[in-house]
Design brief:
The chain is an alpha+beta fold. Helices cover 35% and strands 37% of the residues. The protein is globular, with a radius of gyration of 13 Å.
Length: 93
């Protein structure tokens, strides 16, 4: 089974509902979470890295990134979306 993997990174001040909001958006758009890691760091900074499979997504990646950016604005967070292929190209030795 092929997957189309995308990294989603969320950074900002910690607050309630971040994981629920992001995962709810992903669920609504048929985007499967493959891996997720989150942590609250020094001075209350929240960092979450999520790998998702967008193969069966109900929206195109560009629209997903646009909507996540808007969610980030609402939450006061910075949300970055990066396709696995771009990530591999940037980190190739």
């Amino acid at each position: 089974m092929d997957k189309e993997l995308v990294f989603i990174t969320v950074i900002g001040k910690d607050r309630k509902g971040i994981v629920a909001t992001i995962s709810g958006f992903l669920y609504k758009n048929d985007i499967n979470i493959v891996d997720i890691s989150q942590r609250v760091m020094t001075d209350g900074y929240f960092v979450m890295t999520t790998m998702v499979d967008v193969k069966d997504a109900g929206i195109p990646m560009e629209e997903m990134a646009k909507q996540l950016d808007a969610i980030g604005d609402e939450l006061g967070m910075k949300i970055q979306v990066q396709h696995e292929n771009l990530f591999k190209m940037m980190h190739r030795v």
